[in-house]
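Page header: ASSEMBLY MODEL / four components / 342 residues total.
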Amino acid sequence: LKWKDPEKVLGHVCGVQIGDKFKYRVQLKMIGLHCQDQCGIDYANFNGLNLAISIVDSHRYSNDSGSSDKLVYSGHGGHVGPKFNGGDKLKPEDQKLEKGNLALKNSMDRKTQVRVIKKVVGYDKDDMFVYDGLYVVDDYAEKKTAEGIIVFKFYLNRIPGQPSLQSMLKW
Amino acid sequence: LKWKDPEKVLGHVCGVQIGDKFKYRVQLKMIGLHCQDQCGIDYANFNGLNLAISIVDSHRYSNDSGSSDKLVYSGHGGHVGPKFNGGDKLKPEDQKLEKGNLALKNSMDRKTQVRVIKKVVGYDKDDMFVYDGLYVVDDYAEKKTAEGIIVFKFYLNRIPGQPSLQSMLKW
DNA sequence: TAGACGTAGA
DNA sequence: TCTACGTCTA
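Prediction written out in full:
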């Protein structure tokens, strides 16, 4: 269920608070938080431009985030990341600035909000997807891995004024 | 939900008739017809011996069945079959007589019943999983593909006396 | 048709 | 940890 008006799609989802937890990706889809079954980057076409709507950080790629209000999110594609289906049997390839990667770049250009869902490992003996709130893509870079493969890195910053994930999670 | 007694596990499932249709694999699991999410061969350990319980023919491997009461079912493993996840990017390898393949062989030796579910393509504009009834594994062979890869073929025959799938499906 | 930061069982 | 005859979107 998607609309062409960014104002009705981007940003928070009605009824979902920061810290809300979900066990399955399909639940994120059902409530409209992240409308992709497996893909980490959801996006839609708004008046001819693809903008990112939400991303899920499941730690399948190497997203070395520093502080809690910064997030480094890897682009998708290229069979990058050690936990991919097919594992290390698939040869890594250059990632391309297309699909979700391009949408994230467009979101950077337009400074639009992106919802972030993080997979929290070992919460209450289980892994959970947790809504972390809204971020903005401030920068991106083409990195080269040790094998010489191009991988995109998107640098997101959490929009200030939101309650911290820690406080909402109540560990 | 599995028991150690083959008589309570093998054979028909209470309430499920030949020709019953299901859209999703998970439905087969919920009613106990085939308790695997993705794997085509379900089996369990009965007094130390793994026996096949049910198989799903989704046509991902090349199962060239002849008549309607015969079924040639390919073993699993080895990244065989053109419709595999990862597609043709994964190198095919020899299949091994283990897991589901071994269970099917054991079922052959013991002449135990195996439930068969077939994916029917284009039924009522949709693909459906249809319960086809009970078969027995009569033979198996190690085949070599054109690339020299070992693939198992299990030759199953439908147990006589069951209503035909055609008659129960009411095309 | 191919790709995707899934998911459960062995 | 790895596999597996899935399943949806683009």
